[in-house]
Structure formats: structure tokens, C-alpha cells
Design brief:
alpha+beta; five-stranded mixed β-sheet; about 25% strand; binds adenosine-5'-triphosphate; binds magnesium ion; ATP binding; transferase activity
Length: about 575
């Protein structure tokens, strides 16, 4: 590619609203241009990076056995009403009407569409499991779009969905995605950490992990152990359960409350009402060292069998959120042993909930022997709600906790039957019985990755792309395009390299060397070859963007370093 014809111009001034270094450099170096808040065009340089990230994702998804498809952006509102999300998704969902006044939404995610699709295509266990993915534009009317591609309102996502016949199957599908994600982020050259997370708005009954690119500008705090592999998203852990006042032990339930009072139940209830998505997920209350009560997320059903399995007991009854709200006035679901009738629950509610909520912080309150994220989701994260940096790790007790800021670049969930039940995605099992499919969903912020990498890899002169996703491999810069000897050598190198599939950007612009070098550092192509006065003796100046040491080498030596 000849730079004189490249649609890209480096800017001298950066827009004042660009706060993040990645945002400034991506604008300045001519990778992206803003059309409206959170809405961007990719110029050729930016698009080349984006396509390379997509290619890595496709290769690893395909290798994991997933199949690519492509679904519509426009989604009938009926589907969202069926799943129950039309009412709860809020203003982030962009809603519109067609000429016949029919309601639509612009897809912020595709659970409804894929579940409907698979429901119509698959009806036997013989055709399961299956994992499907797409790379597609998503729309979310974010309250605060910012940092360029980090938080857009129109952005590119890879979303995948798995359909299994059993929870064990889901676990295998989930692990396959976990592995694919580590390979994808490794290949993109990201520094990241996979952490435990809360399901958030998507709902779901199983485990969930976030992949966090480490960067100061990140909106989440990651807690990790210096010794074991424990890592969690602190904000999520804190938002899962607000603290409640000390409660007294009632009806033989042991009191294990050690955390200081900060919130009353009323405050808690208010919080839960305001932010239904951040509700308490799963907290186990212990009595006489046996689990007797479980608080569950109230915005969706809990798989009763799974719960029985987790508790290792048959005598478990589930009250859904509605029943519990009516009985106790609290908007959380409740599960307890049969025999604890709802009126008893109502009587117990406050003390119990306080104890359970507060107890979330105590290791003893969690059901022993259940691996968080693997079986029924027990909050491991809750353990570190009040953690401080440098404290002993609550898991291995050998290392200490460290805090880092992170950007969520990927998120994997075990959804369970939330969508298959809501939308009726069933299959016939090997005994001829009708069952709901067990689902997982897996997202990657494709466009966000560009900014995350730019955030991690830049210096005071510009971007520093890793070879795997750089817009070009080599930046070939003749000092003067009017010098025939220089141009002859530059053209020769250009030919030799491109013939070997090396992507070369040839700076054939009639500019001063200083301008060319500044632009080159800004754009951040991994290798730069300057062809100057020494061209006469067949020598060039070779520089790696990352390290910056200039070396005068022969043409052949430069070639052998690159190819
Ligand atoms: P966030 O917490 O940053 O709002 P999310 O949890 O709402 O993200 P998911 O629903 O998990 O996002 O979507 C899957 C992935 O899509 C995220 O892990 C993230 O990488 C990416 N993503 C989400 N929202 C945006 C956005 N507004 N702009 C760019 N990428 C996004
Ligand atoms: Mg979000
Ligand atoms: Mg998130
Ligand atoms: Mg997420």
C-alpha cells in the first residue's frame, strides 16, 4: 500500500473530548473518526486492525467447533416481550417502529433471536450440542459513551451461544469457550486476567467469567491473589449484596454476623428495586452447620434440580420472586427446606435476610464443597467484598490480594434454561422425553479490543501495535522520493516483501523526513525501514517500534529480519 493514496491523515490537534490515550491516538493517527457520540467510522488503517482481530476470533472459534452464522440487527419486539426483557432492558435498548407501526429493537445482544432460530431448527438430542457465533454490529444506547471504541453505542461484538442437553454438557461448552478466549486474547497481544463475575442484566443460573484487559482507564477493579489463581471483579462483588445490620438469631438459626452495619433492609430493598439487575444472586444461610436457606436472584427462575443437587438434598422447595415478594415484602427469591412454610418465611424474613446478606461476606456461610462457577453459582466473589489491597487471600491464605483496573473485553455465561424456557426451545432426549435446552452465551467486544490494546500499548509518541494485529507489518520510509537511488531501493524492498505476503506501507509522500517519522511513530507499525543516503551502498536503517533502537543494516539483513 502506498501511503500517498491511503485515506488517512494524521491530526496535529486532538479533539478536546478525547480523554483516553487510546482514543486520542486512534483519532490522531487516522484509525477512526467520530460521526456522533459513541458512533465511529473506521478509516482503512483502523479497519485493517479490526479485520485482523476478527480473523483471529474466527480461527479460534472455528477451531473450538463453533459454527458461524449471521443474524439480523432488527429484532421484533415480540421476541423481547416473550423473554421478558423488553420491559427490563431499559433505555439502552434502541426501539423503533416500522411503517406498519410494528415495534422493533436494534439488537444489543441476540439471545432471543438465536433461541428462536435453534428452537425451529433442532428438536432432537442427536443434533446437540451445538455452538453458534456471529460477528456483528450491536446497538446499545449507553448512558455515557466514551473513550472512543471502548464504550460505543454502535460497536462490533462476537457473540456465541451454546445449546446442550445437560449441565455437564454446558460445562464442557463453557470450558471450550474459556479456552478459545484465552487463545484469542493471547494472540491479540493483550495483557488480561479472567475473573469471576456477576451475570448482570443477562440473567442466568450458572457460572460467569469476565476477561479483563489490564489498564488504568478500566472501569472495573480486579482483585487477584499473588499466589493462587483467584481473581474476581470487585465492583460486581460489591454490587451483589449490600450490607445489612446485625440481626439476632431466630428459630435456632445460628448467628454468624461479623460485618459492621451499613445498610438497613429498607435501603437494601430500595437498592434492589432501583437496580433489579444487581440483585443478590445466591447466598446460602447456614443453621447448625447445614444449609437451610438460599437467597436467589429474583428476576428469573432458578433451576430447582440444580439447587437440589447443590444442596445435596431432596427437601428443597423453591419460592419464586413473586411469592417471596408477596410473602416477605422483599424482592428476592427464596429457597429453603420444605416445611419452612411461606408464613414462617415471612416471619423469618428480616432477620434471615439480614443474616444471609451480611453473611455473604463470611466463608462459613457458603455452601461447602461447591466450586463457584462450576456447579450452582455460589458467590465466591462475595468473600472479597470488603477486601483491601495487601490483605491475605481468602482462598489460599498464602498470597496477598492485589488490585488492578480492568476493561471488560470478553464475558462468558452459563445461562441454563432462562431463554429456552421463556421461548420454548425444547428437544427430545434419548428416552423420548421433552426437555429444555441448556444454554450458554459468550461475548467479545471486537471493536473494544482495538482500544484496549491501544490503551496498553502506546508511548508518548504514538501507538505500538503487536505484529499479529498491526495494520501493516513494515513501514518503508524513503527519506526523499525525489532521490532515484533511494526510490529504486525502496521499490525493490517493497516488491520483495509484498511477494512474501509481508504487508508493507510505503511512505511515498513528498514530505519532510521529520513529518514522516512522526507519523510513523504515531501509527505504530512494528518495523520501520528508512531508506536514506546509505541506499547507494545498499544499506537501510532498521527500527522496531517497540524498542526504538536504530540499526544500520544491509538490505539483505533487513529482509532476513523481517521475513
Ligand atoms: P460493560 O460492563 O462494559 O457495559 P457489558 O457487561 O454490558 O459491558 P456484555 O453484555 O457482557 O457487555 O457484552 C459482551 C462484550 O461486549 C463485553 O464483554 C464488551 O467487551 C463488549 N461491549 C459491551 N458493551 C460495549 C460497548 N458499549 N462498546 C464496546 N464494546 C462493548
Ligand atoms: Mg453494559
Ligand atoms: Mg459488564
Ligand atoms: Mg458483561
Amino acid at each position: 500500500m502506498r501511503q500517498s493514496s491511503l485515506l488517512s491523515s494524521t491530526l496535529r490537534e486532538i479533539p478536546s473530548d478525547a480523554e483516553a490515550a487510546s482514543h486520542q491516538y486512534m483519532l490522531k493517527a487516522g484509525f477512526i473518526r467520530q460521526l456522533a457520540a459513541g458512533i465511529y467510522s473506521y478509516l482503512p488503517l483502523g479497519l485493517r486492525v479490526l479485520r485482523k482481530v476478527e480473523k483471529i476470533i474466527r480461527e479460534e472459534m472455528d477451531k473450538s467447533g463453533a459454527q458461524e452464522l449471521f443474524m439480523p440487527v432488527m429484532q421484533p419486539a415480540e421476541l423481547w416481550k416473550e423473554s421478558g426483557r423488553y420491559a427490563v432492558y431499559g433505555p439502552e435498548l434502541i426501539r423503533l417502529k416500522d411503517r406498519h407501526d410494528r415495534e422493533f429493537a436494534l439488537g444489543p445482544t441476540h439471545e432471543e433471536v438465536i433461541t428462536t432460530l435453534v428452537k425451529n431448527e433442532i428438536n432432537s438430542y442427536r443434533r446437540l450440542p451445538v455452538t453458534l457465533y456471529q460477528i456483528q454490529t450491536k446497538f446499545r444506547d449507553e448512558r455515557r459513551p466514551r473513550f472512543g471504541l471502548l464504550r460505543g453505542r454502535e460497536f462490533l461484538m462476537k457473540d456465541a451461544y451454546s445449546f446442550d442437553t445437560s449441565w455437564e454438557g454446558l460445562h464442557q461448552s463453557y470450558l471450550a469457550m474459556f479456552d478459545a478466549y484465552t487463545r484469542i486474547f493471547d494472540r491479540c497481544g493483550l495483557r488480561y486476567s479472567a475473573v469471576e463475575a456477576d451475570p448482570g442484566a443477562i440473567g442466568g443460573e450458572g457460572g460467569t467469567h469476565e476477561f479483563m484487559a489490564l489498564a488504568q482507564i478500566g472501569e472495573d477493579t480486579i482483585v487477584s491473589c499473588t499466589h493462587c489463581r483467584y481473581a474476581a471483579n470487585l465492583e460486581k462483588a460489591r454490587s451483589i449484596a449490600a450490607q445489612a445490620p446485625r440481626s439476632s438469631a431466630r428459630n435456632g438459626m445460628k448467628e454468624k454476623v461479623h460485618t459492621p452495619d451499613t445498610r438497613t433492609i429498607e435501603q437494601l430493598t430500595k437498592l434492589l428495586k432501583r437496580e433489579p439487575q444487581e440483585m443478590i444472586k445466591t447466598l446460602i444461610y447456614m443453621a447448625d452447620d447445614k444449609p437451610v436457606a438460599v437467597l436467589v436472584r429474583g428476576d428469573h427462575e432458578v433451576n430447582e434440580l440444580k439447587l437440589k443437587h447443590a444442596l445435596g438434598a431432596e427437601n428443597v422447595a423453591l419460592a419464586d420472586a413473586k411469592t417471596t415478594v408477596e410473602a416477605t415484602g422483599a424482592p428476592v427469591g427464596f429457597a429453603g427446606p420444605i416445611g419452612l412454610e411461606i408464613p414462617v418465611l415471612a416471619d423469618l424474613a428480616v432477620g434471615e435476610m439480614q443474616a444471609a446478606v451480611t453473611g455473604a461476606n463470611e466463608a462459613d456461610y457458603h455452601f461447602a464443597g461447591v466450586v463457584p462457577g462450576k456447579d450452582f453459582a455460589i458467590e465466591q466473589t462475595a468473600d472479597i467484598r470488603n477486601a483491601a489491597e495487601g490483605e491475605a487471600c481468602p482462598h489460599c491464605e498464602e498470597g496477598t490480594l492485589r488490585f488492578d483496573r480492568g476493561i471488560e473485553v470478553g464475558h462468558i455465561f452459563k445461562l441454563g434454561k432462562k431463554y429456552s424456557e421463556a421461548l420454548g426451545a425444547r428437544f427430545t432426549d434419548h428416552e423420548g422425553k421433552d426437555q429444555h435446552m441448556i444454554m450458554g452465551c459468550y461475548g467479545i467486544g471486537v471493536s473494544r479490543i482495538l482500544s484496549a490494546i491501544a490503551e496498553q500499548r502506546h508511548d508518548d509518541r504514538g501507538l505500538v501495535w503487536p505484529l499479529s494485529i498491526a495494520p501493516f507489518h513494515v513501514h518503508l520510509v524513503p527519506v526523499s522520493i525525489k532521490d532515484e537511488t533511494q526510490m529504486r531501493l525502496a521499490e525493490e524492498l517493497y516488491d520483495l516483501l509484498t511477494r512474501q505476503d509481508i504487508e508493507v506501507l510505503l511512505d511515498d509522500r513528498d514530505e519532510r523526513l521529520g513529518v514522516k517519522l512522526n507519523d510513523s511513530e504515531l501509527i505504530g507499525i512494528p518495523v520501520r525501514v528508512v531508506v536514506g543516503k546509505l541506499a547507494a551502498s545498499g544499506e537501510v536503517e532498521y527500527t522496531e517500534r517497540e524498542h526504538g533502537d536504530k540499526q544500520v543494516v544491509s538490505k539483505d539483513s533487513a529482509l532476513s529480519r523481517i521475513v
